[in-house]
Amino acid sequence: MQTDVPTSTPPGAPAPRGASGRVGPADPRFSGLPGRPGKIVAVHLSYGSRADQRGRRPAAPSYFFKPSSSVAASGGTIERPLGTELLAFEGEIALVIGTAARRVRLADAWGHVAWVTAADDFGLYDLRANDKGSNVRSKGGDGFTPIGPALIDARAVEPGALRLRTWVNGELVQDDTTAGLIFPLAQLVADLSQHFTLEPGDVILTGTPAGSSVVVPGDVVEVEVSSANGATSGRLTTTVTQGEASYDPALGSTPAVNDVQRAEAWGSREAAGLPVEEPVASSVLSPALRAKLEKTPVAGLSQQLRKRGLDNVTIDGVRPLHPDAKLVGTARTLRFVPNREDLFASHGGGYNAQKRAFDAVGEGEVIVIEARGETGSGTLGDILAIRAHARGAAGIVTDGGVRDVDAVTAVGIPVYAAGAHPAVLGRRHVPWDLDVTIGCGGTTVQPGDVVVGDADGVVVIPPALAEEVADAALAQEEEDAWIAARVAEGHPVDGLFPLSAPWRTRYDEEHAP
Which residues are Mg(2+)-binding (predicted)? Predict the structure, then answer.
């Protein structure tokens, strides 16, 4: 196992200072680096595998800073503070800048990297809540950035073919290559150099792939970076210990966790020991409520919502492919943004948000698609309609176009769309994200909203009001039917619609329990 820094130095790079007597740094924390870095810049999300795990792909890299005081050497320890539970490792590839880079071209950016090595970007999810993505406290603690143990000459490796592996207690838990990066390593260097000068000795932490999870006191984490030519950083080893000091609430916010943080720290709800969430439909729409809504016209529901101050709840501009079919379900949302060629290249291919949405929809749910009213391409076709139907989805609503409209209609699932168009998705749209608040047909739709459609159109009902407006609409339908019968008997509508006091008394008497 390689445990020391190399003796070769890329041209223009500072001489490496290792732990074996070659200009060794005074502080052993930095023995895996040329010296104490002036800046440590970390990427939030950069591997496709991690992005798919999180359910979102960034359009561009975003960053945060870590203090140099967080650096630790291989063989050291990291303390999990008293009163916390979610200390997570993130094996990463670290780039060490050799020559200053300021507004460098992408083609020239890699030439400013002197060395590559292993890093572990530890984070304490208990402290994330108040840092709003800056990660100052959650990732800036002493010992939270082990780096090393050896430097690999960047000139001798192919930046697109580096391998990153992480072990916990000897078990391999992360194994990915830089071929899986959303943003190539050189792009990170070039992008950062647009904003400030990258100076010799600065470190860029390039993100972690899927597999990051929680560790507890006693666990041993090892990270290694290697290349096809056999060069290796050696295994960067860190042991987790239990701290004795706690945080003073009089000075600042204290650790706080919830199930969302637990799921993200562990990697999934299942890994965190949390129950897998049931589809929203099962908790909002009981069989009895669903039956009521299936009997209730959309016009009646719209009227009742208006009485309660909700006018902007209809999805306008969409028509049903099956006018005789009733649509009732809870919303699962999918958002498209206007097509931009570079964004479609990064988000449109592979297992994109559109495909994930149709694979994730549950029984009784409705996929609602934000397409901005743009009908110049399809937002789904027959394959996706078949997938939604096979999963038991209640229907699909899109304020965009439908491709293969005859085949989609033949599938039999209720579909509401703004029109038909033969073009594929990429002509007008980029699939962006799912299960977020969207705008469809001029109204806001949130995941879990109750969606009801018939030949008149589609209405969106806040879940908390669904039972109330269904009961009121059914009662109004019964009253309207009685009024219609009186009009058919020859009575004038004046005083009857709406009911005047005498007619109201007669109606109430006839419908008394």
Answer: 404
- Which tens digit of pLDDT belongs to each residue from 232-285? 999 999 999 999 988 888 888 788 887 778 888 898 888 888 876 544 444 468
Give all domains of the chain, ordered by start, each with its CATH number. 33-245+253-266 (3.90.850.10), 283-467 (3.50.30.40), 478-510 (no CATH)
Binding site residues for substrate, as ranges?
381-384, 403
- Between strands 236-242 and 76-80, the pairing is parallel
Question: Angle between the 501-510 and 466-488 helix axes, to the nearest 10 degrees?
Answer: 100
Distances in Å between the Cα of 202 and the Cα atoms of 105, 174, 266, 274, 341 are 18, 25, 30, 40, 33
The reply to whether the predicted model has a pTM over 0.90 is no
Q: Which residue positions form the known binding site for Mg(2+)?
A: 404
> pLDDT, tens digit, for every residue of 314-338?
999 999 999 999 999 999 999 999 9
Pair 96, 225: CB distance under 8 Å: no
Q: Please enumerate, by residue number, every residue annotated as part of a binding site.
A: 381-384, 403-404
